[in-house]
Specification:
Number of domains: 3
Order of helices and strands: HEEHHEEHHHEEEEEEEEEEEH
Radius of gyration: 43 Å
Number of strands: 15
Helix content: 25-40%
Strand content: 25-35%
Largest sheet: 8 strands, antiparallel
CATH topology of the largest domain: Glucose Permease (Domain IIA)
Shape: rod-shaped
Length: 293
């Protein structure tokens, strides 16, 4: 008896098989499939390729990729750039406002204005560079300064600081008398007295001369308790030597509203009085030109 030759393995892949699904009790045939090893292999490979394709699509084109370690939102870079630009713009606005408030404080304390904020080192203002400056005044510089100062103080003759043809377009506001009393010392910029001194009874309330916003309310060694209010039209009023401040920085005040109590604080005070200053476009003007005391 001769043995049959063995069949090649790749030919066995084409052998047909039947997959039958039967009822467990009645053995009734419910469903049947004709399969071969080749068909099963092709089906498994096709299913694997389909799953790989679906997974790749989810990772590449849907927001679910953000939950996979190593992937991030492609729009995040645009948001970072936009936030960086916004922060830069806010920083410039903040620097401008800081320079404005710094100059107001320097004006109140009797110093010159700054064109720019000093550079900071470690979050503090560096003043070492200013201490090393040694400049000599020239004759031309002194003449220029004198000419500028004379022109600056001539604003007293024009209450609104504008030419005659523009003055009619800018109505002078109605100023409220900050304190009823006697003027004992008048406006004299030549002696660095940029306001007027008003003597009144003790505990008298000092009122805001116009509507505005308190931008300075603090103690200084020379002027004592000082409060400064910014008004519309580039007007700025200052009230010095107070005994008590009734408002703080950032408060909105109305004309005639009490902002302080008369006093004699500060080393430069010689008795209970109010030192009142009025500034227009960062230049001192005579309050008596605006207000009848």
């Amino acid at each position: 008896m001769t043995e049959k030759p063995k069949e090649k393995w790749y030919r066995k892949l084409r052998h047909k098989y039947r997959l039958v699904i039967m009822h467990d009790e009645t053995y009734e045939e419910k469903l049947s499939f004709r399969l071969s090893r080749m068909n099963v292999f092709i089906a498994l490979v096709s299913l694997s390729v389909f799953l790989i394709f679906i997974t790749t699509y989810i990772i590449a084109f849907t927001p679910l990729r953000e939950y996979i370690p190593g992937y991030t939102d492609i729009g995040l870079t645009k948001q970072v750039i936009s936030l960086d630009r916004t922060a830069d713009s806010l920083q410039r606005i903040f620097d401008q406002q800081q320079l404005y408030l710094t100059n107001i404080n320097r004006i109140i304390e009797g110093y010159n204005e700054l064109d720019d904020l000093p550079k900071t080192v470690g979050g503090t203002v560096s003043t070492s560079a200013y201490d090393t400056i040694r400049l000599k005044k020239s004759a031309q510089d002194s003449l220029l300064r004198m000419e500028f100062e004379n022109a600056q103080y001539n604003l007293v003759n024009d209450p609104m600081g504008a030419p005659d043809n523009l003055r009619a377009r800018r109505p002078i506001p109605n100023f409220f008398i900050p304190l009823k009393g006697t003027v004992t010392n008048h406006f004299n910029p030549g002696q660095n007295h940029f306001g007027i001194d008003i003597v009144a009874k003790s505990n008298e309330a000092i009122k805001a001369t116009l509507d505005g916003t308190v931008v300075y309310a603090d103690w200084t060694l020379d002027k004592g308790y000082v409060i400064g209010i910014i008004h519309s039209g580039n007007l700025f009023s200052v009230y010095k030597h107070n005994s008590v401040l009734l408002k703080k920085e950032g408060d909105l005040v109305r004309a005639g509203e009490a902002v302080a109590i008369i006093g004699e604080t500060g080393e430069l005070s010689t008795g209970p009085h109010l030192h009142f200053e009025l500034w227009l476009n960062s230049s001192p003007v005579d309050p008596e030109v605006y207000i009848t005391f």
